[in-house]
Amino acid sequence: MIPERPLTIDHDQRTGGHHLVVTGDLDYTNATELEQVLTDLHLDAGDTLTLDLGHLEFCDSTGLSTLIAAHRKVDRAGARIALTAVEPNLARVMEITGISHLFGPQTTSATSPADEGTTGT
Fold first, then answer.
1. Cβ atoms within 10 A of the Cβ of 66, count?
2. How far apart are CA 116 and CA 71, in angstroms?
3. Rounded to an integer, what distance in angstroms lies between the CA atom of residue 52 and that of residue 57?
4. How far apart are CA 2 and CA 118, in angstroms?
5. Are 60 and 80 in contact (CB under 8 A)?
6. Can you say whether residue 100 is alpha, beta or left, with left for phi > 0 and alpha for psi between -120 and 50 degrees?
7. pLDDT by residue (tens digit) across 18-67?
8. In what order do the strands lie in the sheet with 48-59?
9. How far is CA 71 from CA 65, 68, 75, 92, 117, in A?
10. What distances in angstroms separate CA 114 from CA 3, 45, 46, 109, 118, one per listed residue?
11. pTM
12. How many whole angstroms separate alpha carbon 65 and alpha carbon 58?
C-alpha cells in the first residue's frame, strides 16, 4: 500500500494576485483544506491566482473538483487562473476529462515527483 502524503499549501500574496504551492496528495481526505484556502482568498478583477502543482503527487476526482471550484471562484471575481508545473499524468487526466481548457495554457513538469525513487508494481 502506498502511504498517503499530507497536503500542504503555501500561500504567497503578490501584487496582482496570489500564488499557491500545493504539495502532497489532493484527494477526498483533504480537499477541504484547499477549498478553505480558496474561500479565504480575496480576488479582484484582473488578479491572477497561480496554482503551482509541481509538488502535487496525487490528485483524485475530488481534487479535480476542487480545481474546478477554484476556476469558478476566479471567474466570478473577474480574475484569471494559471496552473504551473502540472505533472504530465495529471495534465493528461485533465485533458481526457475535458477540464484542461478551464485553466488556459499550462506549464508541465518534466517528471512526476511521485515517480522519483519508485518502481513499477
1. 23
2. 30
3. 12
4. 10
5. no
6. alpha
7. 999 999 999 999 999 999 999 999 999 999 999 999 999 999 999 999 99
8. 8-14, 17-26, 48-59, 80-84
9. 10, 5, 6, 18, 33
10. 11, 35, 34, 12, 8
11. 0.84
12. 14
